[in-house]
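Dear colleague,

As promised, here are the two records you asked about, laid out in our usual form so they can be pasted straight into your sheet.

NAME FIELD: protein one
SEQUENCE, THEN STRUCTURE:
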Amino acid sequence: MVVDDVEPNRRVLAAWLAAAGYVVEEAASGAEALARTAAGGVDLVLLDVDLPDRSGLEVCRAIKGDPATASVPVVELSATYVEAAHRSAGLRSGADGYLTEPVTREELLASVEAMLRYSAARRRAERLAARLERLNVATLEISRAERLGELVAACAEQSAAVVGGRAVVVAAADGQAALARTGLGEVTAVDEQPVVPAALGASRFPPSDEPYSVHTRHRLDRSGAPAGFEAGRSYRVVAVRAPRGDGRAVVGVEVAAGDAEEVREADLVLRQVARALGVALGNLHALRVERSLVLKLQRSLLPGDLPAVAGLELAARYVASAEHAEVGGDFFEVVELPGGRVGVAIGDVQGHSLDAAAVMAGLRHWVLAYALEGHRPASVLTRVNRLLLRNHPELIATACYGELDLSTGRLVLANAGHVPPIVSDGGGARFLWARGVLLGVEGPPAVELDMVLADGTTMVWVTDGLVERRGEALGAGLERLRSAVAAGAGPEVRLEQLCDRLVRLAGAPTTDDVAIVALRFDRRRQAPDGR
């Protein structure tokens, strides 16, 4: 509390306030009062209207005009300006109260008590309103999480931001568990574990969704607080159950022991956070179930086992995007053709949807049908493009198709806007560039590339999910792929190992679907198993 000390009787007022238990600081001028109030920690200003350096009304307006001090109650005091007009002018300057002297001790203390009650109620209301507003942001951020680790981190961060203190979240779902602990302005610590903490087990899980208090003594407290709640602290905790699946969680926020108002507000926050977390856990379960079904559908549209062909080593991979629950449009095909030839196709239909998957399945079978009819690679892609333009004019796709004559090593390749394949032989690893427009776009037929592969040559076809990264030029991804093939395509490396290495280039989790086909040509390899 700041009291302006401009007359001896102000010392009497300060003494009354100090005797009543208030901490009083005296300011000798308006400038000093402003500086002290701006420094913070002031609950009330008792301000003389007639100050030696400026008008008290001016000082009051300055206090109320600063957002940092506007909520500090100001009581103006005067022994000179005692008329009704003076009191009106004082209140219009922003003062919360106006006293005229002489003032009795009882009147002074009663006025101060009333102003402090009003100020405390106002601060609580403003704090609660800010927390409720922040809860809207918290709910949105929690709902955006797509994995359990992301979910507990978002919940902990948002809970800490709302209450302005420490928060702990422990959650388990579908046999996985994660813990996040954070404080306002601190880096969130996230720990994902394959083992569900005992405190989240069904036998110990609290039956009620109502918040309760936890005073931690150990890492696993007798009250059921799981690891992550810091010892020697007091928390308000709420248990969460997902409406779908087996998701369970505990959310705790630190509170000041014995502060009933803080506990009440913390409980309000926890109930809202618990609802959002429960819904998010249920959504994650539904997403996992949906994703599992989608992957089964996706794989059913792709070829099963690769053919066993003398003179060839083959390997392939398909990795679904971690960011999409929908079916993707990546495909590949390896087929034995008449006359001792093998056809290899790879492609990508724009988008992630059932429509994209349906078109993908169509493209794969169109390529296969035209290849089996005996058409050359450029003719295969031209005919496929006609069908796509006729049946799905709204979609575009890329594809690359090549045929290898196993008796001569002759490769004929055509490309329709796809990532070029890589060949690795004694001359190093390089891309095979063949010009051709995208499928779904009118244009000239693809230009065929005709070359002969030496024994021991490795070829790799990929989709763009392996090379494209957000915020990075495509050339950097292509060079990363080329370098990986150059380093890992030696004759001593099995193609299964090479595919595994290339999958890791996409990063984890993958942001797009990835398809890979690897081929090693060697006429000395007569048995499909390499013996």
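NAME FIELD: protein two
SEQUENCE, THEN STRUCTURE:
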Amino acid sequence: MNKIKTVLNGLFLSSTVWLSYGFADNYFELSKNLDIFSTVIKELNTYYVDETKPGELMKTAIDGMLESLDPYTNYIPESQIEDYRFMTTGQYGGIGALIHKDSDIVVISEPYEGFPAFKAGLKAGDIQIKVDENTVEGKSTSEISSFLKGQPGTPLKITVKRPRNEELIIKEVIRENIKINDVPFYGMIDKEVGYIRLTGFTQTASKEFIAAFKDLKEKQGMKRLVFDLRGNGGGLLIEAVNIVNTLIPKGKKVVETRGKLKKWDATYATRNEPLDTQIPVVILTNGGSASASEIVAGTLQDYDRAVILGKQTFGKGLVQQTRPLSYNAQLKVTVAKYYIPSGRCIQKLDYSNKDERGKAQTVPDSLISSFTTLLSKRPVSDGKGIKPDIVTEEESISMVASVLMRKLHIFNYATTYALNHDSIVGPKKFKLTESEYQEFASYLKDKKYNYSTQSEKLLKKLKEVAEGEKYFNDAESEYSALLEKLSPNKEEDLIKFKKEIKLLLENEIISRYHYQDGRIQQSLNTDPDVLSAIKLLKNQKKYNEILAGTFTAKK
């Protein structure tokens, strides 16, 4: 009962703080419902048939309340503060490796090059047995991660075994401060075209971007840039402002925030001299580009400073701030919306307007407003994220390739390949031979990987409808013949989709020798958006016409 009183005292203390910040108009409604809530908690604690856990009950109640708002307003208990700090700083104490589960075993997916797991000689494909004296059997990946994380400088012993070898290997690892780079790769991808991939906006994002940009321009001869923001979910606002600042002059507005309280209304402008205001830039985006990524892409589009190429961005224009709570907990709360220089807000979903299932609605076309870029007066719009100047086709992956990845057959074959080959050529040159691909096909013969094509699924749905309408008997023979043609044949699919399966295999195998750098370098060779960006940057006339708003695509 003392725990309940402590929680309720905290609640009432919090309510006093809320009231002092402008909730006086709702005093009766707020105090009435807090009283009801406290009564429910006390009655449950006293009369519920089983022993209750007040902390868990309270967290469930808080999470349920916040879930009714938006997915970015979250309660962060003290136990999860370290995970939250990692999201904003990109840093944690640990060994620097990814892990996954394959049925009942825990496998190292990839050690980060240069970090403790790598230094200790752990390899992708190693099967974990114990962390210190903690067995991993029956544990989830999150539980095992908690064993591996810890104070930098502290030691641990990791017991593993290698595929095809029952011998146990004990590796002594010293935890370090692990910082995941926001720029995992940069380099020259053509004679004059540089490439920078940015995967996050933690506290070092702009510093890493500036270092990469200077190296490419001053030492490697870059005259054009492909800036890859695909899959970048955002992060710190000030880092987005600093990165925009590298490409546009000092004193230019980058983004405004507008909230219910005036204290959240702010304008962020460039504060430093830029690195380069003339170099042609193509920014790559997709549906995973969100928040700070959209500020960078949208602002440079608004200033007609870069061509955006790829897919429509996610559409997250909401600003979060953390507020301290009792007992070292925090509340991450949405306080404002982003508005980029043209005046448009990039938020796609309206969380104040949900359907009967509680799903937020997209901003309807009737409420979409038109804006123009600042120099060329090109038309742009709000409410849907950032629409690229050049929209590229969505890439699809075959069902056979998808299931081979999901069932870890490609990962496991790469492990086998690495056990049999001490080294390979560089990432840009490595190719599987025809005989090696046939070895992979043979490797799959006793492996399970069943799948259905979308065509097969739709045909079976048609059968259900036809049976319900009493038409199926008249078409059964035709249905059976068509189903036979549409049902997947594994051997034929391995030939039909050999090109994409080979690329996936090569990428995974390369990671065993050249790690993340190698993965990225190999993928750039065949990435259609990257190739389109290079082609555009080499066509200065088309690039200029797009930014001027005078380009007309030939039919």
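A couple of things worth noting about protein two: Residues 2-68 form one domain. DSSP finds 18 helices and 23 strands in the chain.

Best,
R.
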